[in-house]
Amino acid sequence: MRHHQHRGWVWTMVILGTVLTTLSIFAIWIQRQALSTDNWTTTSSKLLADPAIQTALSGFMVDQLYATVDVPTEIKGQLPPQLQGLAAPIAGGLRRVADDAALKVLQRPAVQSVWKEANRRAHKRFLQIIKGGGPAVSTDNGEVKLDVGGLLQQLEDRIGIGGRLAAKVPPGTAQIQVMNSKQLSFAQDVANLLRPLAIILTAIGLGLFAAAIWLAGGWRREVLRATGIGLVIAGIGALLLRRIAGDAIVGSLAKTEEVRPAVESVWRIGTGLMVTVATAAIFYGVVVFLGALLAGPTHAATSVRRRLSPYLADWRVAYSGLGLIVLILLAWAPTQALRQWTTALLLIALLGFGVEVLRRQTAREFPDAALLPDLPTPGPDGDGLGPPPPLPSAPLPPVAAK
Question: Where are the domains of the chain?
Answer without folding.
Answer: 36-190
